[in-house]
Amino acid sequence: MSIRSYKGVSPALGANVYVDESAVLAGDIVLGDDVSIWPLVAARGDVNFIRIGARSNIQDGTVLHVSRPSSKNADGSPLIIGDDVTVGHKCMLHGCRLGNRILVGMGAIVMDDAIVEDDVIIGAGSLVPPGKRLESGYLYVGSPVKQARPLNDAERAFLSASAQNYVVLKNEYLAETN
């Protein structure tokens, strides 16, 4: 795996973390316990920080980045991802905040200062514009996203199950490398 420091700050990995050898993590990044980072993920915590909560998974080809502090935004825009979040293949998360138990569908883009509350599904290919807030308990789709409908009980249960499935899968990968 490629773990790189930036200005003397290196990524910190929690317990039982899997980072694929083709992924690149640089700078101020903290991964919670049981996080998995899959092939070709690029994560740069260079001009701000990235935090990823326990049992979250970042799937193949996803880009994670942040925005620097500026005169318009004194703190800049860090990237904060909660617990039990599944980020599908080839997503772009940039300086946004995701709560817990979220599914970000394949190819979705979530832009600076967007806030995604807990228990949300973002449909594949959706665009969450800068500063948009997605309320808890709904499916959002489109470009730009629109609230489609409330999540049903099976979808809510799937959010935790998806994260747990990736914990099992990353443990299988870790067993292969040990």
Can you characterise this structure?
The protein has one domain: Hexapeptide repeat proteins (UDP N-Acetylglucosamine Acyltransferase, domain 1). It is globular. The longest helix is centred in the last third of the chain and has 25 residues. It has 178 residues and is mainly β. The protein is 14% helix and 38% strand. The two termini are 14 Å apart. It is built from one helix and 20 strands. The strands form two sheets. Strands 1, 2, 4, 6, 8, 9, 11, 12, 14, 15, 17 and 18 form a twelve-stranded parallel sheet that branches. The protein has an eight-stranded mixed sheet with strand order 3-5-7-10-13-16-19-20.
- Number of helices, where a helix is a run of at least 4 consecutive DSSP H or I residues: 1
In CATH, the topology is named: UDP N-Acetylglucosamine Acyltransferase, domain 1
| Main sheet attributes: strand count, strand direction, barrel closure | 12 strands, parallel
Beta-strand fraction estimate: 35-45%
Overall 3D form: globular
List the domain count as a whole number. Answer: 1
Write down the oligomeric state.
single chain
Highest-level CATH class: Mainly Beta
Helix content: 10-25%
- Average pLDDT works out at 97
The helix/strand series, from N terminus to C terminus, equals: EEEEEEEEEEEEEEEEEEEEH
Q: Which stretches are low in confidence, meaning pLDDT under 50 for 5 or more residues running?
A: none
Amino-to-carboxy terminus distance: 14 Å
CATH level-four homologous superfamily name: Hexapeptide repeat proteins
Round the Cα radius of gyration to an integer and report it: 15 Å
The number of distinct β-strands equals: 20
What CATH architecture would you give?
3 Solenoid
Structural class: mainly beta
Pfam families: Hexapep_2
InterPro entries: Hexapep, LbH_gamma_CA-like, Transf_Hexapept/Carb_Anhydrase, Trimer_LpxA-like_sf
Organism: Rheinheimera tilapiae
Protein name: Gamma carbonic anhydrase family protein
